[in-house]
Write a structure and sequence with these properties.
Shape: globular
Order of helices and strands: HHEEEEEHEEEEH
Number of strands: 9
Structural class: mainly beta
Helix content: 10-25%
Strand content: 35-45%
Number of domains: 1
Radius of gyration: 22 Å
Number of helices: 4
Distance between the termini: 57 Å
Oligomer: single chain
Length: about 250
């Protein structure tokens, strides 16, 4: 009887493992990096004066990215982005340094734009009022964008030290885009749970799709913020003390 009960218990554990939520698995990457939060289809970027045909940004222009979060990870795993009564949104900005071009492949072109001096904020708001990805109102800023992404309590906020967009057009006309950047958390109700007081820097990256966009938008990004790294305090020592560690 004990063997039967033991086998049953093992089966229950295995079954629980199979049907358990996979959020924790979604919070790590192949490089072992821990994700802080991410957004998927509901992310868009706009920038006045941007040339969509040539992927060209003029120095001094400000880009704005808005998105609806789809995942929170530690230390905010208890926050539910699918809560029907709440909505978590992110808004980030940056000032363009202008677009540079370089050869890509045999006869393609790579377009790189660096944005600096920006800010970001993540909001918890009620009700869920950000527009769906399939119904983005055109020509932002407008009555909804970014207003409906900015309402609510600030969970995290800080500086966008850099936001770099990379768009490539191959010799076959295929276009792909991505972004990467760095941020620093400086405030928000959840900031004390991170190491920003010690100067921790976080990384962000994702896709920067540039086709099939609603009028007035320059990209359809989806991406993530990785958890900021915590610097290790430096300690003074002497060569003699260091040598004793290896005796």
């Amino acid at each position: 009887m004990k063997r039967i009960l033991g086998a049953a218990a093992i089966l229950m554990v295995l079954a629980a493992t199979v049907i358990a939520p996979t959020a924790s698995a979604q919070c790590t990457t192949g490089t072992g990096t821990n994700i802080l939060f991410k957004w998927d289809a509901n992310g868009f970027a706009y920038e006045p004066g941007y040339n969509q045909a040539t992927f060209n940004s003029t120095a001094g222009n400000q880009v704005t990215v808005v998105g609806v979060l789809s995942l929170w990870c530690a230390p905010f795993a208890a926050l539910d982005p699918n809560d029907p009564l709440k909505e978590y949104t992110v808004v980030l900005t940056g000032t363009s340094s202008g677009t540079t071009t370089a050869p890509f492949g045999t006869s393609g072109t790579a377009y790189t734009t660096v944005y600096t001096g920006g800010t970001f904020a993540v909001y918890e708001g009620t009700p869920r009022n950000a527009p769906a990805a399939t119904a983005m109102p055109i020509n932002p800023p407008n009555a909804t964008v970014p207003a409906n992404y900015l309402d609510g309590t600030v969970v995290l906020s800080g500086s966008v030290d850099s936001l770099v967009t990379s768009i490539t057009r191959s010799s076959f006309g295929t276009v792909n885009g991505s972004f990467r950047g760095r941020y620093t958390v400086l405030g928000g109700s959840g900031s004390t749970q991170l190491c920003q007081a010690k100067g921790g820097i976080g990384l962000m990256n994702g896709l920067w799709a540039v086709s099939g966009l609603p009028t007035g938008y320059i990209a359809h990004p989806n991406g993530k913020f990785d958890a900021p790294s915590c610097p290790v305090p430096a300690q003074t020592s002497t060569w003699g003390k260091i040598k004793t560690l290896y005796k």
